[in-house]
Design a protein that fits this description.
The chain has 294 residues and is of the alpha/beta class. It has helices at residues 3-9, 46-58, 78-84, 86-97, 115-121, 167-170, 173-188, 202-219; strands spanning 15-19, 24-28, 62-66, 101-104, 124-127, 132-135, 142-143, 145-150, 156-160, 222-225, 240-242, 252-258, 261-271, 277-289. It has eight helices and 14 strands.
């Protein structure tokens, strides 16, 4: 199957959500939540992410995670990830209880597409404080794609992870997982990066982004993805957008869609005039009205 067909197939039977002037969506991807060891790239930005998540929860946003939320190539045990980042998962569970949580799977958490796996590892978690199992995401659905349909124009925003444009990370994902888990993960301790990852290989990154942009232009819709870790706000001529990631040393990025306007956001730690550290939110690009993008 070609990469174009894989991308198109991602939206076969996809969940469709309405988009209106009152909609408030925040789109994250590539959190790569890990097990708390030296390979856990999410760990350094966990407090930033939690602060952003708390803000979006208080302001009534719906949370959409576009894949690679959990690092399940390097780690086998989802329970350990939930335990280490239990404060994050408690808040995500509150989003879920209020029907404001929508998850897409990527290549690094591909196993989430299997209902049996989700039932076993995502339904409940053990609360060490209460010393009993508590609901986490019972009856969780995880999608390959999500479609936001604009109520005014009928135009569509296609949301997926983006690994479909790369055969090594989609068709042959089990081979890639084996290499990451048993070859590149140990070598990462010595500063050797994984050359197969789009985010760490400029040639693969460029090729993947060119394919995603081409698909979006031919589809005459807006494609929002992750995977490459490179944040991007597209245009009418090139309607490919990217949420970035939560593992950049400088901070975390996401895309907000509020009142039919889209903005690229960065959350980072800054120092105020009193030399105190604070969590700061910065608009990197936008907001751009959807009418200027369709």
């Amino acid at each position: 199957m070609s990469w174009e067909k894989r991308l198109t197939q991602a939206f076969d039977g996809a969940v469709q959500l309405p988009l209106s002037e009152r909609s408030k969506f925040v789109l994250f991807s590539d959190c790569h939540r890990g097990s708390g060891d030296s390979n856990d790239n999410f760990l350094k930005n966990r407090n930033l992410y939690l602060a952003a998540l708390q803000d979006y929860y208080r302001r009534g946003f719906s949370y959409l995670e576009l894949g690679d939320g959990d690092e399940l190539w390097e780690n086998r045990c989802m329970a350990q990830i939930v335990e280490i980042h239990s404060d994050v998962f408690r808040l995500l569970s509150r989003f879920y209880q209020e029907k404001r949580l929508f998850l897409v799977y990527g290549n690094h958490d591909m196993v989430k597409k299997y209902p049996k796996w989700r039932s076993e590892f995502c339904g409940f978690f053990f609360d060490p404080v209460l010393q009993k199992y508590q609901p986490l995401f019972p009856e969780l659905a995880v999608y390959q794609g999500v479609i936001l349909t604009d109520g005014q124009t009928g135009k569509r925003l296609y949301l997926t992870h983006g690994h479909q444009a790369d055969a090594l990370n989609s068709v042959f994902w089990r081979v890639s997982r084996f290499l990451v888990r048993y070859v590149w993960r140990p070598l990462e301790h010595f500063g050797v990066t994984d050359p197969t990852r789009a985010a760490k290989n400029n040639r693969v990154l460029k090729k993947t982004e060119e394919r995603l942009a081409k698909w979006a232009a031919e589809k005459e819709g807006i494609l929002i993805a992750g995977h490459t870790h490179r944040p991007r706000l597209g245009t009418r001529e090139l309607p490919y957008f990217n949420t970035g990631s939560c593992v950049h040393p400088r901070g975390i990025t996401c895309i907000e869609i509020v009142k039919r306007e889209m903005a690229l956001i960065e959350w980072r730690v800054e120092t105020d005039e009193a030399m105190r550290l604070k969590v700061a939110k910065q608009v990197l690009a936008g907001p751009v009205p959807l009418d200027e993008l369709f």
